[in-house]
Amino acid sequence: MSTPRLLIVQHEDDCTPAWFGEWFVEAGLEYDVVLGHRGQAVPPTLDGYAGLVVLGGEMGANDDAACPWLTPTKALIARSVADGAWFLGICLGHQLAAVALGGEVVVNPNGQALGLRRIRLTDAGRRDELMGVIGDGARSLQWNSDIVSRLPGSATELATAADGTVQAARFGARAWGVQFHPEASPEVFDTWARAATSARPDDGPELAAVSAELALAKAELRRDWAALAHRWAQLVVAPVPVT
C-alpha cells in the first residue's frame, strides 16, 4: 500500500510546514509543497493527494490582487471541502477557508494578537475528533492582525481566545482550521522576528520578549501541538467515522 501524500500550500519562504512537516512524516504521511508566492501553480483538484494543508502568511485572505495564487487556493479549499477531502488550515489558511466557504475575515478590532495566548475549547471543541486531543487552556503562538469575524453557515466554532475571537473551527466533516501557529518552533518565530525587526526596529523589544517566552515553552508547545498534528495525520492515514 502506498504512503498517503498531502498537498501543502505555502505563501512565504519562511512560513514552512516546520514542526508539522516533521510530525506528519512521523505519523506515516508524505507531502509535496506548492510555493504559491514563487509562481508555482495551485492545482484545481486534489487528484492523487489524500489531503490539503494551507499554511500561514503575512498577506490577508482577500489580497488576491497582490497575491494572485490566493484565488486558486481558495477555489481548491472549497472544492476539497465539498468533496469531503481532509483539510487543515493554519492562520491564513484558516482565514482563506472561511472566506472560500462563505464567511468573513476582518482586521481584529482588538488589535494585533502576538505571543503565547491560551485557547478555550467550546463544548463542540471538547467533543471534536481533532481539537478534543488538546487540553482546554493550551497555549498557542499567535501572530495575526486579521480574524474570522463570521464563520460560514455550515462551520462549527471549536475554540476561542480570551477576547472571543475564533481560534479553531470545523468547516466540514473532514475540514478544520486554526487561527494560531501550532507548526511554528521558537526557531521559526525567530526568523519571522528578525525580518520584522529589520523592517520595524521599534518592534524589536516586544518580539525579543516573545522569543524568550517561546524558548522557555518549547517542550510544552511540542507536546501539545504534536498531539494535534499526529491526530489529524491519523485520521488521514487510517480514517475512522467522523461525526
Model description:
By secondary structure, the protein is α/β, with parallel strands linked by helices. The protein has a domain of 168 residues: 3-Layer(aba) Sandwich (Rossmann fold), CATH 3.40.50.880. It is built from 7 helices and 12 strands. An 8-stranded mixed β-sheet has the order 2-1-3-4-12-11-10-7, with helices on both faces. A two-stranded antiparallel ribbon has the order 5-9. Strands 6-8 form a two-stranded antiparallel sheet. Helix 1 links the parallel strand 1 and strand 2. Helix 5 packs antiparallel against helix 6. It is globular and about 50 Å long. It starts with a strand and ends in a 6-residue tail after the last helix. The model has no long low-confidence stretch (mean pLDDT 96).
How do the SSEs run, as a string of H and E? EHEEHEHEEEHEEEEEHHH
CATH fold-level assignment of the domain at 5-108 and 121-134 and 145-182 and 226-237: Rossmann fold
Q: Which overall shape is indicated by the principal axes computed on the Cα atoms? A: globular
Return residue spans where pLDDT drops below 50 for at least 5 consecutive residues. none
Top CATH class of the domain at 5-108 and 121-134 and 145-182 and 226-237: Alpha Beta
Structural class, judged by helices and strands?
alpha/beta
Count of alpha and pi helical runs: 7
- Beta-sheet strand percentage? 15-25%
Percent of residues in helical segments? 25-40%
Number of beta-strand segments: 12
| Cα separation of the termini | 27 Å
| Strands ordered across the widest β-sheet | 2-1-3-4-12-11-10-7
> Compute the gyration radius: what is it?
17 Å
Mean pLDDT: 96
The second-level CATH architecture of the domain at 5-108 and 121-134 and 145-182 and 226-237 is: 3-Layer(aba) Sandwich
CATH homolog superfamily of the domain at 5-108 and 121-134 and 145-182 and 226-237: Class I glutamine amidotransferase (GATase) domain
Instruction: Give the biggest beta sheet.
Output: 8 strands, mixed
